[in-house]
Design goal:
The protein is mostly helical and 131 residues long. The protein is 68% helix and 0% strand.
């Protein structure tokens, strides 16, 4: 795996730590998503407009559904990032910026194992997104 100039090469222990973090985070996300899917399934079965449900009940149910869908979307995105990082470790491209093809930096990757952009490219992407 690549490193920036002046950084020490990756050790097996460091790579094992990153892999363990990614797998642990992935397992936790899968558990959260399974729970969210169960909750959402219950909310979807409740039409929210049956006898005894007033407009406030219907509104609360709809809000809960939207909230669960939003959470699931975010979790799904993180899961995709983790899977992408694991795939990149497997194919030897982990730690290489997807934008400029330069090393991301070992410290950044260790702090944020799902990182796919170096700090400079990430800042540029955030500026473009803010416009």
């Amino acid at each position: 795996m690549v490193v920036k100039d002046g950084e020490q090469p990756w050790t097996q222990a460091e790579l094992d730590e990153v892999l363990a973090d990614l797998h642990e985070h992935r397992d936790r996300l899968v558990g959260i998503m399974e729970e969210q899917e169960r909750d959402l399934s219950l909310l979807m079965r409740d039409p929210g407009d049956g006898a005894g449900n007033d407009q406030a009940d219907v509104g609360a149910t709809n809000f809960e559904r939207d909230h669960e869908l939003t959470l699931m979307s975010g979790e799904r995105g993180m899961l995709e990032q983790i899977d992408r990082a694991l795939s990149r470790i497997g194919d030897g491209t982990y730690g290489v910026c997807e934008s400029c093809a330069q090393p991301i930096g070992k410290m950044r990757v260790m702090a944020f194992p799902r990182a796919t952009l170096c700090l400079s490219c990430k800042q540029q992407a955030e500026k473009r997104g803010a416009r």
